[in-house]
Amino acid sequence: MLTFALNVVIARSLSVASYGIAAVQFHLINASIVFLAREGVRRSCLRGSKGDAALVAGSLVAVPAGAVLASVAGAYFRAQDNMPAVMQCVAAFIELLSEPMYVYATSKGWFGLRTGCEAVAMVAKNVVTVWLLSSSAAAASGRRDDVMMMSWGQVTYACVLLGCFSVGTWFRVGGVPAVGRVDGAFYSFYVTFTVQAVGKLVLAEGSKAVLAVVTSPAVQGVYGLVNNLGSLVVRTLFQPFEELVFVTFSRTRHDGDGDEHDEHDEHGGGEHARGHRHEQRVLLGSLSEAVCIVGGIVAAFGPSYAYVALRLLYGARWASSDAPRALGYYSVYVALLAMNGTLEAFLHGVADQKGLMRNNVALVVASLAHVGLSVVMVKTHGAVGLLVADGVNMVLRIAYSCAFVHSYFRKECGGLRGVGLTPSWAVMLALGAAAALARASEKSFLGVETGAPVVVAPTVAQMARHVVVGCVLLAAVLAVVLRSSSSLARTLLSVRKQKTQ
């Protein structure tokens, strides 16, 4: 909540165009370097490294990879005399220096340490950014460079993250973790997962690249604000949950018959294999149901309450833009993100090398289709069109993952239907009814249709009545969830207990 409040202050302090440069263009620079350097390393360490010393050795690969990427990108932006972008490259490399400690903490189940380090770093970043933006000397002289100050904030984040992980790991281990030799299996997984990371990067950030090239900074600002606000749930709930799913199924796979018996497992041979598959099926069904419920709640209420949220948090300037409509679309997109993240984490956790390579090919095809659709939709519908293209992309990826799940469990329970990935019909009907009633409340109390431009700004009293209706509907949905999914909480708690032991 603290970091969110500071982000609100930052958004209120920046122009829409400056916010767009920081949220879209700078994000692309930092995310591309960090993601390409570490994604393959993280997955490979957890799948291909046996023993703490080998895991630490494998995680160190991210540092030279990040150095090369940051140097190339930094030289390019330096030639263009774009110093704020150069600072983003420096910040990305500093952040990668903490990667070995991050991977080690993940393997040990130290999620509290990870969360604490990231939270402190994010608070420090936002505090420094707010302080720089509110500097009276810079503001009075009219020389305030908003984008440079945002870059200083990112450098602060990277430095604090590195310091926190260093101190936290030192006290947990009692020194520096031992570094051994990289396992042979690490490199084969590393190549596969790194190629996969390229496809995932294009899928995740390719649309933003199109937005940065085709549209103005003002349109980028609308998308950036909506993406940052809407992805709050993704960053705080779904991303850690996705990592938990990957770690859980990677371990259950190794705890089962091992890599050398995958072919035997695929054909359902042996009592142990069938029992192992049954355990995975029950666990995947519960985890998938959980994220679908959370994503469904966001999708049901987000479109009808987007205007109120933006008006109360960011002010009339943002609420009168295209941001409320875009945020409504993003709310539906969140539900797709939730489902896809869980299914892909399962696929990456249990698939053999051939399965991972087939997934890479599917990602390349989806990437090309996504970029092409993004170009068309951005030109015609701006930020909203980009969100529609992102949604289509998620649907394609979900379909592929569902096909894998169906094949994986076909002999054990008949495939996809036997796994039960979605909530019960009672929960789905409750979500649908809540969405319809929330839209009716918006039209009645605010005088607007969901996603339509607001001609006359509603009063505080009107918005309050609309919010009260939403609280009642949310309580009703949660009551149905508790009644229909009573065993879900016990399953999730048991998973958490296993990972923290």
Could you describe the 3D structure shown?
- The protein has 501 residues and is mostly helical.
- The chain folds into two domains: 1-182, no CATH class; 192-501, no CATH class.
- Helix content is 85%, strand content 0%.
- The protein has 22 helices and no strands.
- Helix 11 crosses helix 16.
- The longest helix has 56 residues, at 353-408.
- The two termini are 29 Å apart.
Order of helices and strands: HHHHHHHHHHHHHHHHHHHHHH
End-to-end C-alpha gap: 29 Å
Shape: globular
Report mean pLDDT, rounded to a whole number. 83
Question: Helical element count?
Answer: 22
Low-confidence stretches: 254-269
Strand proportion: under 5%
- The secondary-structure class comes to mainly alpha
Q: Tell me the number of strands.
A: 0
Key features?
22 helices; 0% strand; globular; single chain; 501 residues; mainly alpha; 2 domains
Topology:
Elements: H1 2-13, H2 16-48, H3 52-59, H4 62-79, H5 83-96, H6 99-107, H7 111-133, H8 136-141, H9 146-173, H10 184-214, H11 217-230, H12 232-255, H13 262-266, H14 271-314, H15 316-319, H16 323-350, H17 353-408, H18 410-413, H19 416-419, H20 425-446, H21 460-484, H22 488-500
Helix pairs in contact: 1-7, 2-3, 2-4, 2-5, 2-9, 2-10, 2-11, 3-6, 4-5, 5-9, 7-9, 10-17, 11-16, 12-14, 12-16, 14-16, 14-20, 14-21, 16-17, 20-21
Summed up:
The chain is mainly α and 501 residues long. It has helices at 2-13, 16-48, 52-59, 62-79, 83-96, 99-107, 111-133, 136-141, 146-173, 184-214, 217-230, 232-255, 262-266, 271-314, 316-319, 323-350, 353-408, 410-413, 416-419, 425-446, 460-484, 488-500. It has 2 domains: 1-182, no CATH class; 192-501, no CATH class.
